[in-house]
Amino acid sequence: MAKQKNKKERFSNNINIRNKKASFEYEFIEKLTAGIVLKGSEIKSIREGKVTLGDAFCVFHREELWVRHMHIAPYSHGNIENHQDTRERKLLLNKSELRKLEQKMEEKGLTIVPIRLFLTGKGLAKVEIALARGKKLFDKRATIKDKDVKRDLQRMKY
């Protein structure tokens, strides 16, 4: 008789997709975790790890937060009713969190970017978003310099 897997074993495929470009381009001010509304074929593609967050950003539309340009590849075993690659997807946050973010977005130079997409123990997809301010060129150079120094120190250890 086959053993039944519990939920944690069933959804333990450690999907953790990061937006490395965002950490280089932006300085994060505040981070939040939001749920995301997906179709069935989208969650299956996410479980396969076929997601790109590189160009994604969030916008407010009718007091709701939406993520745009998040690329989820079509499901490989899908049929003709597969999802669109870069459709807008609604993010799920509390009203108080939405109001707070919307007020902060009115400040000049701030944006909301998704920085990480992951699956919870229950198999739910979550997006970590950040209220961010764009870095200037000299800030980006300093970031590169810090990474080089850390890499050199790491090499010297071994």
Automatic annotation (TrEMBL):
One GO CC term on file: cytosol
Keyword field: Cytoplasm, RNA-binding
| MF terms in GO | RNA binding
Q: Where in the cell is it found?
A: Cytoplasm
In terms of SUPFAM superfamilies, this protein maps to:
Small protein B (SmpB)
Q: Does the keyword S-adenosyl-L-methionine apply?
A: no
Keyword Nucleus in record:
no
Q: What is its main location?
A: cytoplasm
Highest taxon, organism lineage = Bacteria
Q: Name one GO biological process term.
A: trans-translation
PANTHER family annotated for this entry?
SSRA-BINDING PROTEIN (PTHR30308:SF2), TMRNA-BINDING COMPONENT OF TRANS-TRANSLATION TAGGING COMPLEX (PTHR30308)
Task: Report the sequence similarity comment from the record.
Answer: Belongs to the SmpB family.
* NCBIfam families in UniProt: PRK05422.1 (NF003843), smpB (TIGR00086)
Known function? Required for rescue of stalled ribosomes mediated by trans-translation. Binds to transfer-messenger RNA (tmRNA), required for stable association of tmRNA with ribosomes. tmRNA and SmpB together mimic tRNA shape, replacing the anticodon stem-loop with SmpB. tmRNA is encoded by the ssrA gene; the 2 termini fold to resemble tRNA(Ala) and it encodes a 'tag peptide', a short internal open reading frame. During trans-translation Ala-aminoacylated tmRNA acts like a tRNA, entering the A-site of stalled ribosomes, displacing the stalled mRNA.
Q: What is this protein called?
A: SsrA-binding protein
Species whose genome carries this gene: Persicobacter diffluens
Q: What is the lineage of its organism?
A: Bacteria, Pseudomonadati, Bacteroidota, Cytophagia, Cytophagales
